[in-house]
Amino acid sequence: MQFRILFFLSILLANSFVFAQNFGWKNPNFRQDSILLSDTIKLQNRGILSEKFQVLDSIGNPIPKEFYTINFERNEVYFNSSIAKQMVKIQYFVNPKLAESVFYAKNPNIIVNDAKPVDIFHLIEPNSKQANKDVFDGLNSKGSMVRGIRFGNNQSASVQSSLDLELSGKLSDDITVNAAIADNNVPIESDGYTQNLQEFDKVYIELASKNSKIRAGHIDINTNQERDFFNPFNQKVTGLQLSTQLKGEKSSTNIFASGSITRGEFMRVNFVGQDGNQGPYRLSGKNNELYVIIISGSEKVYIDGVLLERGEQNDYVINYNTGEISFTSNRLITANTRINVEYLYNSRNYSQALLYGGAEYESERLKLSGFFFSQGDSKNNSLGNDLTDAEKQILANAGNDPDKMYTVSAEKTTYDSNKILYRKVNQNGLDIFEYSTDPNDELYQVAFTYVGANQGCYRQINANQNGKVFQYNEAIAGVLQGDYEPIKQLISPKKLQIYTLNGQYQLKNNGNVGFNLGLSNYDQNLFSSIDDQNNSGLATRVYGEKTFSFKNWKITPYAEWNFINKNYKSAERLRAVEFARDFNLEQELSGVNQNFITAKINSSWKEKFNAQYKFDYLENTGLYKGLRNQLDANYKTEKDEIVAQANILSTKAMLQNTNFARYMVDGKRKIGNKFWVGARIWGENNDIDDLTKNQKSDLSFKWNEFQLKGGFADSIGHKIDLTVYQRQDDSVRLGTWQNIQQSKGAIFNSTLIQKQNHQLSLNFHYRRVNYQFLDAPNEDFMTGSVKWYKAFFNQGLQLNVDYEVGSGVEPQREFQYVKVSDGMGIYKWTDYNGDGIEQIDEFEVAEFIDQANYIRVYTNTIEYLKTNKNQFNFTLRFRPKQVFNTENEFWNRWMFQQNISASNSLRKEGTTLEWNPFTNSAQILGKTRSIRSSIFFNQGTQYKWSSNFIYNQQQSQTYVYTGSEYRDSDSYLLQTRYKILQDLIASFDTEYMMINSDSELFMSRRYKLNNLRLSPKITYQTEKALVASLFYNYQKKKNVSGEEQLNQSDLGTEIQWNSSDKMSLLGSFSFINNKFIGNQESVVGNQMMEGLRAGNNFVWQLQLQRQITSFLQLNISYDGRKTEENKPIYTGSVQVQARF
Which of 134, 194, 529, 987 has its CA 20 to 30 A from that of 4? Predict the structure, then answer.
């Protein structure tokens, strides 16, 4: 009797409450659109992720991806015409940075359709239609604004806000406007895995007339050396920029000025790659910050002086949020690879203002320009903790010496379970810091700084706490045992001012002379007047060239002299990327006056032959003198191409003399119209005499490499490039030249098959290193990929294979959970052991939004392990009707699909390469495996009944600082659907699933679950407006490795109703009875009951969507739950969305 009463209550409540999503809130980034099927459906959200995107038919069965395609850029889904018209649910996850963004190019609701034709001379717009005019009448606009509030009795109220708006057009005949506002409260940078970036939070408005322009908001300032020789820089700022152009009869003058706050600080790093390590390589800050956020799109990456392109299909990818760069298989990184990266990073020290402006005059022959640049830190506006008076005094006494800018970093505080705190204890007469969770202790919040391996007294330990914990280690035999110290480096506020003047005069016959002048004032410590006499510096440059023509020859002599004072400071790099290496210097400017003289002569003949001789003289006053002679020549005809280079440098310095010779000869010849062959020989010999030891320096090196190459290319896309090479590296050891290593390898790039139904490409770079001087095992390194697609039997059988292999490093992942506003996170904390302390194994993904109060933040450690990596993806689709080319209805009812994917990261040992993507090697550090097999019978709503069988296997292993964690699952799902009447459909799902979770450190994460699920469902659907269903889920779960058992009964109903284009109501109600044996206050108990409790549970959810006007939409949602032990918990939100 009681059960029947609950059943009827559920039916009544379901007709009172309607909701848009399936039972159970799993992730705040989950979205579901319920829409009447058409050939094209526009989704409501931007930033849609391709993972876990699925479309469910009217009874909840997934529609195979062969029946639709997705355009993620336009947020549109295109359906095949073979699918019957019905209500469908489209489920997907969104990038949280764009969760509320909606864009419409034009509003379709303001289009007036009239069956009666009216000529344009008599067309009158009714007053009733004028109300639907665009908000920004006369301007091109697109975007949306969302304002909302979320509230509940188990959480604080929180505000939802986002704005995406683009405007362009004319405000008057003379003034145009261009504006973009995108404010989604995004604390992170966009990804760097594509060549083109999308800025998530951009704000600017730009007004322009014929000769003037004003821009406010985000501004990119880019100045190169052609424009301003002594102060080239790139900066992303937020501020105001004004510019105007004054035009004369034969001249023009551009004047501009800007005032802004900088978004990033410039940094440049140079390092040598590691054999077989494609990355990630960590980028750091100017003040040795280990973890920095890179400003999106600000980086320039060079390998051996060559600028690279970003993108997975190009040379490198970059994670802006962790400051890590990795190189693709197109660029094999070796121990000989020279890497230079320039970038802006998010400095967290001081607010920094930038003033920049200038004037540029240009006539027919004369160019003059002058610029001013002022970039300074606000010393009284620290972005971190405000400096104390004692810390300011330390900076005042330090002058320009950074080694004197350190202080102890311990601050007294009160107990807080969200923080890692320490107490002071005396150990052998020395006060040290010890981790403490005792509220009665005198507690300190301590910041530890990495000072180098075995250079400190503290070491990080693998603790269970939510954050980094450091432990004191006593020195052994005078050798320090730690890497950290409880100190922090004080960063001094700085100010840089630069004034530059540039001029160039064009000679009558192909020549010019010019000059550049720069004056800088650089104060490295605004708190101190010590060393201020070294702030100012001067830089000058004069140059000239002239071209002479004699029949088929052109001769161009060029001369240049520039001087840079020892105190001159530019915002960014002044010299060429590899200037220091070219002249055997540690850095391009050495803190002394520098003179640089260049003379060269260039000659060319009939655009076939070009030769250049160049002489350079470089002097760093009192330290260094260098002479360089360089010869370059190239010859090119229709069939042949030859390039030759020779470079000899001779230097004399206080500590060493060097002779550095480089050469390269490269030849290529075409054979017929498709084939070519070539060869290259090149090398370097850097002979360094150590004057302090009167012998050859161990830094001396020489190498020689020989390459043979050939290829093939035709007009229809086939291509093969093959290069084989051998290299020998020598260096000085024990005062004599020794052979250090020999390497050989092959580079192969190809597009072997390029047809519509058959494509094959193969690319790899294999390198073997034989170590000669060192007693080390030989090593093999490889990066490569195979991509194959083949369609057989009229597209009835399709195969797609992607395989990649490579080497790199695996960072030891470290993370902590950070509390955010109520309902704005993803994870929840449950104090399972009741100690009131947040511990890593007590955090889980929240099932309900009122519990989602934490996010997980990864902070990679400085430890990396060498790894071999491979990745494999395989897809097979089989349609018997097309394969057998038959009209037999029986074969038309079947379809088979197989998806297999695997990726592995294994600890590298010796010469072993791991080719097997399904390896179970003990060296695995991280892996993901997925096998999905699907069989469909009677697919589509036109059949009376249908059935699907799906096998799904998932395996994952992650390498984190607490040890490896594993999660495996196998599921067998049988879905059956039967159409009782045209509007009444019955379905039955049977699923058996096995879940295995394991963790090296946490006992609570170790369990094995067996789960049986039976789910009958009845759905009633009218043609347009109403879909109603009654369902029952029975689940039996058992922890094989423990005592926990669950018998769950879930009885519920779902209803959705649509009223044309104006309003939709959606909702559900469930009664869930959990008969649970075991400890429900545990990780496995929470996992089995999905966040609910033992006994009776009620869950209900509701959403209303109302189109108020053509551009204004109201969204109201409400959900709640009630357990047997606790009071009801309600959560609601009201949101208004305006579309422009």
Answer: 987
